[in-house]
Design the sequence.
């Protein structure tokens, strides 16, 4: 037997002005056919799980199409059309497939298709036919849509945030595919959609309330007749009708059981909605708390969350660290022009430098500092351990390390880089334990890497396109009414 593998991964932030183009995918990953299996088989990724699980079941994995870009703005219409065209063209070239394993993100938005994942998943179903199974994985930040559910036979969400179990979920999907092809089971899935936006500050899988939701879903999976169950936080930075949380259940040849169980889980989540509200800590309060703790302490910059599409050029926390003359602090800021100036000046040079806020002023004003150039680096590094997103290869572009007169160490990168690996520091000869404060531009994803050195984390309420305070965002397309916007906890 042969099963095809398709992946299209992009988390689209509709509040980011710049569109995502085909070049963004080319810079990260855009593969077809035989290129896919060798590239993915050793990764910490759901596609690697597909490959391993299929091989274990003596099923041949067949690479068809794989594309990925770092979270950013909405995918341009021409770019999305080309991605789907290429995907379907490659699928058409692979006949005699017994099933498909797919890896969408679930929060992809194209300029011409708000439910972009639902669109391409349905296009694949139409091309592949109804008589053979299509199964796959989704990021728990998916804005799950009825079209995604209808286009597939079984979907599995990652169970962790930070996402470190992707390969395991891929193996789970491959195992269900194998059992289905052998005729042992007939998966039937259904979803329920409470009108609820879970604040991103409350989306860590090992913290309340998501830890509790995970326990509910785990209990459901052990019930007779249930083959799988998943819950979805949703992605609040995609202003689409599908935005929000969801519960999904898979039953064995029993659509009614899948439906009733999904609605049971959704009702429990809805009744617990007050626990999904975020808690917001100011920059100065976070710094005060960090200075009172044994370091290193990680300050999570929620408004400039690179993993949710922000520009990585935010300066709000860095500015306060400089203003308050806090030594032994670290922050990474993307600014290609500042890198070029520091590199040209050379190691040891002391110079005035304007850093950050080069794309907009939503995340602070440029940081105006006098600093010493400590070192310059090529930005490519690798991460061997499972970290958020399953990514193993990173490229910061040309990178400069500078230190301000107040003692703030700034890593200036030419490319946006999500803080998903401590190799981001050690690659530049920086020891994380040398700092009292480490600033990471994220909310939950950095925990997988930074927990090994940071005993304390403080999520900081900063402004920007990924602000945790959803009242600051101007929605036009989300569901109405929805909690916590128009609906209160008591109604």
Sequence:
């Amino acid at each position: 037997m042969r099963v095809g593998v398709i992946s299209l991964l992009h988390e689209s932030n509709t509040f980011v002005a710049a569109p995502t183009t085909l070049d963004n995918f080319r810079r990260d990953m855009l593969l077809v056919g035989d290129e896919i299996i060798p590239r993915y088989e050793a990764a910490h990724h759901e596609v690697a799980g597909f490959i391993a699980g299929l091989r274990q079941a003596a099923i041949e994995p067949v690479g068809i199409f794989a594309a990925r870009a770092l979270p950013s703005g909405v995918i341009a219409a021409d770019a999305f059309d080309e991605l789907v065209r290429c995907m379907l063209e490659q699928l058409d070239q692979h006949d005699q497939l017994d099933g498909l394993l797919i890896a969408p993100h679930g929060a992809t938005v194209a300029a011409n298709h708000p439910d972009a994942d639902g669109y391409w998943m349905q296009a694949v179903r139409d091309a592949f036919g109804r008589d053979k199974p299509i199964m796959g994985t989704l990021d728990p930040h998916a804005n799950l849509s009825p079209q995604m559910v209808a286009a597939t036979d079984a979907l599995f969400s990652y169970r962790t945030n930070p996402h470190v179990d992707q390969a395991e979920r891929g193996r789970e999907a491959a195992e269900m595919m194998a059992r289905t092809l052998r005729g042992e089971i007939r998966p039937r899935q259904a979803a329920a959609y409470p009108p609820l936006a879970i604040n991103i500050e409350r989306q860590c899988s090992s913290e309340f309330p998501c830890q509790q939701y995970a326990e509910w879903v785990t209990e459901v999976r052990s019930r007779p007749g249930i083959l799988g169950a998943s819950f979805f936080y949703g992605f609040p930075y995609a202003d689409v009708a599908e935005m929000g949380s969801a519960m999904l259940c898979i039953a064995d040849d029993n659509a009614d059981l899948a439906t009733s169980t999904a609605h049971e889980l959704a009702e429990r989540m809805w009744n617990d909605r007050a626990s999904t509200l975020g808690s917001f800590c100011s920059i100065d309060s976070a710094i005060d708390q960090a200075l009172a703790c044994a370091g290193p302490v990680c300050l999570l910059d929620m408004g400039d969350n690179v993993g949710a599409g922000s520009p990585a050029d935010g300066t709000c926390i860095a500015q306060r660290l400089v203003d308050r003359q806090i030594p032994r602090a670290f922050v990474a800021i993307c600014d290609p022009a500042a890198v070029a100036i520091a590199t040209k000046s050379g190691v040891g040079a002391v110079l005035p430098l304007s850093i950050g806020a080069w794309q907009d002023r939503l995340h602070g004003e440029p940081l105006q500092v006098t600093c010493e150039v400590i070192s310059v680096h090529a930005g490519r590094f690798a991460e061997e351990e499972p970290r958020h997103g399953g990514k193993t290869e990173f490229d910061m572009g040309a990178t400069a390390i500078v230190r301000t007169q107040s003692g703030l160490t700034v890593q200036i990168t030419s490319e946006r880089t999500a803080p998903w690996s401590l190799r981001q520091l050690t690659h530049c000869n920086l020891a994380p334990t040398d700092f009292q404060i480490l600033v990471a531009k994220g909310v939950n994803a950095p925990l997988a890497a930074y927990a090994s050195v940071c005993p304390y984390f403080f999520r900081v309420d900063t402004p920007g396109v990924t602000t945790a305070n959803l009242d600051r965002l101007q929605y036009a397309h989300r569901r109405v009414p929805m909690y916590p916007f128009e609906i209160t906890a008591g109604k």
Observations:
- The domain at 2-276 is CATH 3.40.50.2300 (Rossmann fold).
